[in-house]
Structure formats: structure tokens, C-alpha cells
Amino acid sequence: MFIISVPPTVTLTLNGQGYLSGRLSFVKGETLVAICHASGGCPPVEITWMMNNRSTELTTHDVSSIETPNANDETFGVTSTLILEMKEEAIGTISCVVSHSCHFPDQKSIAHYVIVGFTTWKFRMQNIYILISLTFFVIVQCGLLVLMKRNRGD
Hints:
A 5-stranded antiparallel beta sheet has the order 2-1-4-8-7, with no helix packed on it. It has one helix at 134-152; strands spanning 9-14, 17-18, 23-27, 31-41, 46-51, 54-55, 63-69, 76-85, 90-99, 107-116, 120-125, 128-133. The radius of gyration is 22 Å and the shape is elongated. The longest helix is centred in the last third of the chain and has 19 residues, at 134-152. 12% of the residues lie in helices and 53% in strands. The protein contains 1 helix and 12 strands; from the N terminus they run ββββββββββββα. The chain is mainly beta. Residues 8-111 form the Ig-like domain. It comes from Stichopus japonicus. Belongs to the CD200R family.
């Protein structure tokens, strides 16, 4: 009897977006949903999470894993979902590490992130409070200046 060992293909998405390169920005207080998917591996793999190259101290409700066999061949897909609230301003990395029980090396998918806090202006119109991010305001204001300049033909 032969046992087939196949290393999986690993993908990492953050808030529904595939991660390619560069640094992703999140706003302090925003929820991060990271999904690590290892497909086409045999036997099934184990997925663990690391933050800043350290094993995370996450409670079980933060991480969920699903293992599904592929019907066409005898490989497996394993998906692990990590949900975190970005509580403080920081720069770092989040990694999903895929460990295979056979002698294949661990596979690691790493995303670089920055968590920023924004200064806000608070306006009150009648009984409605409006918070405007200072950064958003500057971007909009600069965008309007560029549009006005282009419309004037300068």
C-alpha cells in the first residue's frame, strides 16, 4: 500500500483581498479577517498563525479551521480563519504557517500591515454628529485642488 504525500498550495487573504506585496493599512478599531487556505495537500495540513514572527496567544474563538476532502483526487483543503480587532497603532506582520506531517518544509505566507489612528473633526448638525477623519479631509481637499487646477487648464 502506498501513501501519497502532496504539498499544498497556500493562499492568504485579508478582509477579502488577496495579499500580493506591499503594506496593508488598517484603521485602529477595525476588524481584520484573515483567511489562510491550503489546497491540494495530502495528508491534511495544520495551519497556525503568527504575529511579528511569534506564535500568537489567541483564544479558540479567534481561530476556526475547516478541513474538506477533494472529490476529484485524494487531497484535502484546509481553511483557517483568524478574526482580530486592531486595537492599537502598530506596524508588523501576520503570517499563516502551514505544517505538513510528511517531510515537506513548512510553508509560510506573510502579510505586512500598519494600523493607524486617525485624528477626527467632530461636527454637529441639529442632532446628528458627523466625524470626519483629518486624513480623509486632506485627501479630499487635495483631490479637489487637483480637479480645480485641471478644469482651469493650468
